[in-house]
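On clarity, I found the account of how folds are encoded harder to follow than it need be. Since the whole study asks how a given chain folds, the encoding of that fold should be made plain. For illustration, here is how one protein appears when written out as sequence plus structure tokens:

:::
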Amino acid sequence: MNIDFFYKNYFIDLIKRARRGNFSAPSKMALSNSSYQISTNIVVKVGSLILTIILARVLMPELFGLYGLVLSTILIFWGFSELGFGEAIIRFVSVEIKKNKPLKARAYSQYLSKLKIITTLIVLAVLIFASKFISQNYYDKPIYLALLAGAFYILFASVVLIFQSVLQAYNNFRLIFYKEIVIQVARIFLVPLAVILAIRNYLQTEKTLLVIILAISLIYVLSVIFLFSFSNLRKVLFEKNKNPLTIKEKGKVRRFILFSSAIVLSGVFFGYIDIVMLGYFVSSEYLGYYQAAFALATAVLSIGTFSTAIIPVFSRLNKKAKEELFSKSSIVISLISIIFFLGLFILSKPLILIIFGGDYHASINLLRIFSLLMISGPMLSLYSSYFTSLGKMDVLAKALITSTIINIILNYFLISRLVSFGYLYALYGATIATIISKTYYLAALSVSKRKLDRKIL
């Protein structure tokens, strides 16, 4: 099958049918869901970046660094409460819906929601009891009250995850999109307003951080109210079910959670362990420098990473056509990656100074190092799309877990050794650890693909 012919005919046909509305019911649903999901992701990323920039400007490096440290710590605990429950709800419930078994779908929704809430309550108890030790003995920073408030954050974020996962399983992506627009606008206005009021009232650092986390938690409360008010979640999650899960079905769910938890926790640690380790070694303002550079780099990376959009295309192709598409896509993505890398590297100074201000001047060289992510990031997305289309999630899991272990070891080694030369050098160490572990992740997926190709041949 000629891939150029496929591209031309597939996408031209898609555009023509979109204009005429000439789709089958499943095709219409898939196109609609994809559109809403992509739009939702854009809204989330744009809203998060705007909020980060505003907070960085208002809080200044020291408070911004502490805010990031609190949030990263809370999100690691959140990872232990998530464990893949959202993905499990979407997978098991949607399968029963396709089989036209609404009672069984409701049973899966209720069982998984119950497990999620129990797990969340356990994590909350651990966080509450560990907050004082973490803030005073490990970090030695005034974040105790904010970590306690993190319990509310995790609780309501967990409820939002349950609601959204159930809605996705029932193909209600539209409501999630509308919710995200409302919530992101509320976040951009309410959270900075709470910060400004706290600063004007001369609240201590610890109480200001408490106000920030409570304000963000309030946004999740609004999300819960919005989703519950405009959906039939009450019927799905709370009405008594006459067709409960069997012991075998419950065992299947638990095995899925056990497998997915390794992936989820690896991803969480991969994303936040650098901040947690830096929180032990460096002062608060340096955490602010690091987070400013990292936030801007990931924002630019999200613009250059678009290859997940071709997962449906991969799924439609035979092996030969898949390889041809992968080969051509990798060439295009590599060229785009180089352009993004050079652009971010060259423009690091004006970007930091214009977006975050002169107080974040120390972030400039960090951003230049982080610009290397522009090379590995888009290709990682392409490989993930490829293996996902083949159903080879175990390959992704093994590579991610191994790279996370490498990331943790490198972070500790480089930060602890380089901090003796100064706090800024410790930041360089964490940045280099991220680059190396991401590069390993890409190399591991590349090797796995070559091995898979040899087996097929």
Summary: Residues 25-82 form the longest helix (58 residues). Residues 29-245 form one domain.
